[in-house]
Write a structure and sequence with these properties.
heterodimer, A: about 450 residues, mainly beta, Neuraminidase, 5-stranded antiparallel β-sheet, about 10% helix, B: about 160 residues, mainly alpha, Four Helix Bundle (Hemerythrin (Met), subunit A), elongated
Chain lengths: ~450, ~160
């Protein structure tokens, strides 16, 4: 009895200490690159949070761009635009989508729902793909059509030859595409099933194709923050799949990637890279989201550990054998930025500054104060590896007071002229960022 | 209680008999305290949460921790209703005075359980082990004592006047 009460007192004191412990976040710059600063993990009674209120872009307002660039709205009044894809004829596809919706499981899910609604993340997605045709260079699309309708929480999209692949949350669909067409009405042929089900927590299925077009690579997110919904629902989750384009046969290419929201091949080395959203609720500066090359058969830690072998005590039972194998990611992006799109720059059509590297959109999240992300950055690459500090390219999504948000960047693409397109799922717009000199 | 009359300094055998009969009747017909049943319900839910915490600790099956989180949340809501009913018990004169020791026990238990609800809102193993299950255990000990004291946070007016006589 005496030991029990002593342990109880010790536990209560530690509770108080945790509640009192400062939840102020540090400088994100300490977490950029290959060796990010990692503070001790803390568990909170109420995790540090700051929820910006979503408001519309007021007449004429736009995001801010770095020197030598200008920005204009290419399309507005979309239904939660997420991913973008430029077709060979210059037509731009906008995937309008959101979570298929999940039932609240725990009391905290009701609170989380309210938080999402305030931040503008709960809006219904269009479950469709809109086509924009902007050929005369005036910045106003001459044509806007519903290209494919009645999809099921689509996200990844890639054209290989004359076949357009769309990754719904539960399957990859293949559509025959005739150059120039503005609407596809055929239902699409299922190439492969993807992990979804009644609980579909991280629902986005990012997708790209290998250079020769023989394989598709699909990022599948975990079904929880840190296994709180049980291990059964994590079967085949938190992984990057390799799917044979002809047969639809799939296998896990890499695992332990909590939420690989974008996959892309580095153009010089043809190495597969991904941006991954890491776990929440162990501190404002844990765990850094990352950009990394993806090794075949590699294990990147989730759920057992983060940034290599840093064990997450919330997972039970633990797996020291897997922790020992966990690969350290290549490049930290700092914590809770929520990278959602990875786009290699493919030369220097926008500016010589962007000759070699990748644009990354940071959707931003609310489990950190001050907020982090809410911008599009550029990471330089040398010899096929990310180096240096990231450079902000498109900012101003977040109000200066840090309390309102006008937009959140999601999908990225380059249009035919080399301008950078940014999908904004709170502003329901597509922004076009181009060079000031070229007059495009 | 009896209407005063000019013979009230005289005690007749009828009056004595009346006292003897009336006393048990007035005790049993004292208005029931509204809050008590909700204190019992909240207590039972919290003790059940200790049970599901123990089940999670021994099996690691996530659904047990999920049950605990719901049980504690429901208990807090039921306890909030009990507090409102306790106020009504006083306003309507059903309750005579506060049962100080029981009130402190239950108030301490509600405070522990509120903290415990936040602990249980964490994710996975550490939502229960070690802090969650220790808080549930402590809460159960307080509740067993409150239960032994009869669950009621107030002494009913009927019994209070009976106490005085």
């Amino acid at each position: 009895m005496r030991t029990i009460s002593l342990r109880l007192i010790a536990a209560l004191i530690s509770l108080g200490a945790i509640a009192a412990c400062s939840s102020r976040a540090g400088d994100p710059a300490r977490q950029y690159g290959s060796d990010p600063y990692l503070p001790e993990p803390h568990e909170y009674l109420l995790p540090p949070m700051s929820v910006p209120k979503a408001i519309d872009w007021q007449g004429g307002e736009t995001p801010t761009v770095s020197a030598g660039l200008k920005v204009e709205a290419l399309a507005t009044k979309l239904e939660h635009p997420r991913t973008l894809c430029t077709l060979p004829n210059g037509d731009i596809l906008v995937v309008e989508s959101n979570s298929p919706g999940t039932e609240p499981f725990r009391p905290k899910d009701f609170i989380a729902g309210k938080v999402k609604a305030r931040a503008g993340a709960a809006a219904k997605g269009g479950n469709r793909i809109t086509l924009l045709r902007e050929a005369d260079g005036d910045g106003n699309p001459e044509l806007r059509t519903v290209f494919i309708d009645h999809l099921y929480s689509p996200y990844g999209i890639v054209l290989v030859g004359d076949t357009l692949y769309v990754a719904n949350t539960d399957a990859i669909l293949a559509f025959n595409y005739v150059p120039g067409e503005t609407r596809i009405t055929s239902p699409g042929v299922k190439l492969a099933d993807l992990p979804a089900g009644r609980l579909d927590h991280h629902w986005t299925k990012s997708m790209t194709a290998s250079a020769d077009g023989s394989k598709l690579y699909v990022g599948v997110g975990s079904n929880s923050n840190i296994t709180e919904n049980g291990m059964d629902v994590e079967e085949g989750r938190a992984a990057i799949y390799e799917v044979d384009r002809l047969t639809g046969a799939k296998r896990i290419f890499a695992s332990g990637t909590r939420n690989p929201t974008s996959v892309a091949f580095e153009p010089q080395t043809h190495q597969l890279f991904a941006v991954v959203n890491e776990r929440d609720e162990i501190g404002p500066d844990l765990v850094p989201d990352y950009l990394t090359s993806i090794q075949r058969g590699g294990f990147y830690g989730w759920p057992y550990s983060y940034w290599g072998s840093h064990v997450d005590v919330r997972v039970h039972p633990q797996r020291p054998d897997l922790v020992a194998q966990a690969i350290k990611p290549d490049y930290g992006l700092s914590s809770h930025v929520a990278p959602l799109s990875l786009l290699f720059s493919e030369g220097q059509r926008l500016s010589p500054v962007f000759a070699n590297g990748a644009f990354i959109s940071e959707h931003g999240s609310w489990d950190r104060s001050p907020l982090n992300g809410y911008q599009v950055i550029f990471v330089h690459f040398v010899n096929g590896r990310p180096v240096g500090e990231p450079m902000p390219v498109v900012t101003g999504f977040l109000g200066k007071d840090n309390e309102t948000v006008r937009g959140r960047p999601v999908g990225l693409a380059l249009d035919r002229s080399g301008a950078l397109l940014v999908a904004d799922d709170v502003g329901n717009a597509v922004w076009r960022v181009s060079a000031t000199q070229s007059g495009t | 209680m009896l209407a005063p009359n000019r013979f009230d300094n005289l005690v007749s055998p009828v009056d004595l008999q009346g006292q003897q009969i009336r006393s048990p009747i007035s005790h049993s017909s004292a208005p029931a305290l509204l809050h008590r049943g909700f204190i019992v319900a909240g207590g039972v839910l919290l003790i059940a949460a200790f049970g599901t915490d123990c089940a999670y600790y021994s099996t690691g099956l996530w659904q047990w921790s999920n049950f605990s989180a719901w049980l504690i949340t429901a208990a807090l809501i039921v306890t909030l209703v009990a507090v409102l009913l306790l106020l009504i018990d006083f306003v309507t004169g059903r309750a005579g005075r506060i049962n100080t020791a029981s009130f402190i026990l239950v108030a301490a238990d509600a405070a522990l359980s509120l903290v415990n609800a936040f602990v249980h809102s964490r994710d996975a193993w550490t939502s229960v082990v070690p802090q969650g299950i220790l808080l549930s255990g402590a809460s159960t000990i307080l509740l067993v004592i409150a239960g032994a004291r009869g669950w009621s946070l107030a002494i009913s007016r009927g019994r209070a006047s009976g106490d005085r006589s």
